[in-house]
Amino acid sequence: MAVARRILVAVLVGLLLVSAGLTVRVITHDEPAVVNPKVLADGRYRVGTVGDDDAIAAVKAATKALPVALSYDYRSLDKSLKAATALMTTSFATKFQTTFDKTTRKLATEKQAITSALVRAAGLVGAVDGSKATVLVYLDQVLVSSKTKKAGDPLKVSQNRVHVSLREVDGKWRVSDIEPF
User: Fold this and answer.
1) What b/e string do you get for 117-145 counting C-beta neighbours within 10 Å, with b at 16 or more?
2) pLDDT surpasses 50 at 143
3) CATH for 2-180, among 3.40.50.720, 3.40.50.2000, 2.60.40.1120, 3.10.450.230?
4) Which of 109, 117, 137, 154 has the fewest CB atoms within 10 Å, i.e. the most exposed one?
């Protein structure tokens, strides 16, 4: 139940933008650059660097999955859902789909909403623990268009941060939970 509630919160943030009738310019970005970890001469960790190959892979997986999971177009909801769940563990994909079908599908269709999520920053929380990792992701969620959008409406961006839990399954990092906070 808690997982469904967290997914619902993330989806509802996007839907709030829909109901407000906002519009924005779609911004695309490349995958974040890989930064090698740096430890200064005195042993301090240099801020903004990432750990080993597993840590880098987990962060990349989270930054790839979040825009896919939290963006959708009312004209192609099945395609959006399929793309999102392909990046998730089987268990979480089932929970995500249930929540998506109960909330997002109806409201997105009703409002003719197109939303976009853009990752602004991400980093590993702690260390990779075997086949598990948690990544903190800062992202913007914006309404690209909806039937309630007015031409002169000001741009509003919903800035969010989420913990993304990941599990390594068959050599690939998969989202096993999304927890907004």
Assistant:
1) bbbeebbbeeebeeeebbbbbebbbbbbb
2) yes
3) 3.10.450.230
4) 154
